C-alpha cells in the first residue's frame, strides 16, 4: 500500500549576503525532482535578419572592440542600440553622492550619464553560451574584465552590472546569445544592502559570509578555483551561485587561468540546469563591489555569479514585502543537480 510522504513544515530563512527573508513552503509544489520549466526556451535559428550574426556587423550599433581584432571574430563588444543611459552626456567629475545630486521637489536627480553595452558571445546564431568550450567562455569573461577596466577610467561611474538574459520571458529581446553591461553613476540600493549585510556578518563572526558557505549539503560542483552552491536562503527554486574560492572583492581581478576554470564550471551548471529543468529561460548576474571601496571594506566584500532559472513568477506578496516564497529547499535542489550527470 502506497504511503503519503510526510509534509515538511514551512520555514523562514534570512540570507546573510542579500539580507533578504525567504519563506520555504514545500507544500506549494510537487516533488523537487519534478520541477520543470513550463515554457522552455527554444532559440530561433533564423539568422538571415539577425544583426548579431557575423557578416551583419553594419546593422549594429558602434563596435567597442572584437576578439580577435579581425573579420573572423569570436566575440564583439558593441554599444547598445537602445541604451538605458547615455554616454553622450557631459559626465560630472567625481562621485554622484547625495551631496552632489540635485534635489528636486520630488527627490534627488542625477544626470543619466553611463554606458550600456552588449557582448555578442558567438558569431554563430545557433550556438549558445553553454555550447562554447571552457576557454571560449573564459574569453567572454575576460572581455567583461577588459571593458570594466576601460570604464573605470570615468570617475563618475560607481557601479558596473554584468548580466545575461536568456529567453524572452527572462528579458532577452534577441535570441542570438549575448549578455550586457550597464555602468551606473550611482551604487544601486540592493548593492549597498548586500555590502552592509556582509559587513554585519563579518563584524559578528570575523569571517566573510561567502568564504564560509561551503556546506556539503548545498554544494553542487566545484573546481580548483570556484565552487557552485544552492544558497542557504535561495529566493528562487534552483537558484545557483558560483563563488571564487579565494577571497576577491572585484570581478575584474579575475585572471586568465581562473577565467577558463570558471568557464568550465559555468558551462557544466548551465548544461545541468537545461537538462534537469527543461531548458528554462534564465538570468545570470555578476555581483561585484562598487568601483570605489575602502581598504576596510575589502575583507567582507566577495564577488559571485548568480544564476536564476525562470520557473516561478513574482507576485504581489514579493513585490509588496520584499520577501520571496520558494517551494524548493536549497539542499534538495543541490542534491538533484549534484547527482545529475551530463555530457560536456
List the helices and strands and how they pair.
Elements: E1 11-14, E2 21-24, E3 63-67, E4 75-79, E5 102-103, E6 108-109, E7 115-120, H1 134-151, E8 159-166, E9 178-184, H2 189-205, E10 219-222, E11 226-229, E12 240-244, H3 256-277, E13 282-287, E14 304-309, H4 316-321, E15 324-326, H5 330-339
Helix pairs in contact: 1-3
What brief labels describe this structure?
3-stranded mixed sheet, globular, nucleotidyltransferase, 21% helix, 10-stranded antiparallel sheet, 344 residues, alpha+beta, HIT family, subunit A, 5 helices, single chain, zinc ion binding, 21% strand
Could you describe the 3D structure shown?
The structure is a single chain. With 344 residues, the chain is of the alpha+beta class. The protein has one domain: HIT family, subunit A (2-Layer Sandwich), CATH 3.30.428. Helices cover 21% and strands 21% of the residues. The strands form 3 sheets. It has a 10-stranded antiparallel β-sheet with strand order 3-4-7-9-8-13-14-12-11-10. Strands 1-2-15 form a 3-stranded mixed β-sheet. A two-stranded antiparallel sheet has the order 5-6. It starts with 10 loop residues before the first strand and ends in a 5-residue tail after the last helix. The model has no long low-confidence stretch (mean pLDDT 88). Zn(2+) binds at residues 50, 53, 125, 176. One of its GO terms (biological process) is galactose metabolic process. Residues 24-46 are annotated as: Disordered.
Amino acid at each position: 500500500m502506497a504511503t503519503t510522504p510526510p509534509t515538511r513544515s514551512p520555514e523562514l530563512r534570512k540570507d546573510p549576503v542579500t539580507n533578504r527573508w525567504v519563506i520555504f513552503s514545500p507544500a506549494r509544489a510537487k516533488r523537487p525532482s519534478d520541477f520543470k520549466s513550463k515554457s522552455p526556451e527554444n532559440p530561433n535559428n533564423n539568422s538571415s535578419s539577425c544583426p548579431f550574426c557575423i557578416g551583419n556587423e553594419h546593422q549594429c550599433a558602434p563596435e567597442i572592440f572584437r576578439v580577435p581584432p579581425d573579420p573572423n571574430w569570436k566575440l564583439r563588444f558593441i554599444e547598445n542600440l537602445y541604451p538605458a543611459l547615455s554616454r553622450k552626456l557631459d559626465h560630472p567629475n567625481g562621485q554622484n553622492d547625495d551631496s552632489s545630486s540635485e534635489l528636486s521637489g520630488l527627490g534627488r536627480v542625477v544626470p543619466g550619464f553611463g554606458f550600456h553595452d552588449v557582448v555578442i558571445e558567438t558569431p554563430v546564431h545557433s550556438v549558445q553560451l553553454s555550447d562554447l568550450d571552457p576557454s571560449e567562455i573564459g574569453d567572454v569573461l575576460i572581455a567583461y574584465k577588459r571593458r570594466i577596466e576601460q570604464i573605470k577610467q570615468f570617475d563618475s561611474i560607481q557601479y558596473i552590472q554584468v548580466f545575461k538574459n536568456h529567453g524572452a520571458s527572462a528579458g532577452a529581446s534577441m535570441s542570438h546569445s549575448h549578455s550586457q553591461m550597464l555602468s551606473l553613476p550611482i551604487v544601486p540600493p540592493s548593492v549597498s544592502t548586500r555590502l552592509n549585510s556582509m559587513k554585519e556578518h563579518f563584524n559578528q563572526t570575523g569571517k566573510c559570509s561567502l568564504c564560509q558557505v561551503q556546506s556539503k549539503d548545498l554544494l553542487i560542483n566545484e573546481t580548483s578555483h570556484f565552487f557552485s552552491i544552492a544558497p542557504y536562503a535561495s529566493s528562487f527554486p534552483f537558484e545557483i551561485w558560483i563563488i571564487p574560492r579565494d577571497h576577491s572583492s572585484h570581478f575584474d581581478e579575475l585572471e586568465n587561468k581562473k577565467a577558463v576554470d570558471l568557464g568550465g564550471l559555468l558551462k557544466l551548471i548551465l548544461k545541468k540546469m537545461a537538462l534537469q529543468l527543461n531548458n528554462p529561460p534564465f538570468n545570470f548576474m555578476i555581483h561585484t563591489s562598487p568601483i570605489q571601496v575602502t581598504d576596510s571594506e575589502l575583507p567582507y566584500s566577495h564577488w559571485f555569479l548568480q544564476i536564476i532559472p525562470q520557473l516561478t513568477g513574482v507576485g504581489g506578496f514579493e513585490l509588496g514585502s520584499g520577501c520571496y516564497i520558494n517551494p524548493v529547499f536549497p539542499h534538495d535542489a543541490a542534491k538533484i543537480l549534484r547527482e545529475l550527470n551530463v555530457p560536456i
